Amino acid sequence: MTTDFDHLAVGTAALTDGWELFGGLLGGTWAYGGDSPGYWWGQLEFATGPKIELLTPTGGPDAAFLERFLARRGAGPHHFNFLVSDIAEALARTREFGIEPVGVNLDNPRWKEAFLHPRQAHGIVIQLAQQEGSPVSPPPAELPEPGPPAGFSLVEYHVGDLDGAVRLFRDVLEGQHSPAGAGTAELTWPGGKRIRLVHEAGLPLGGSLHHIGFSRAAGAFTAQESERASLLAKRLGVGLELGG
Question: In this structure, is residue 190 part of a structural domain?
Answer without folding.
Answer: yes
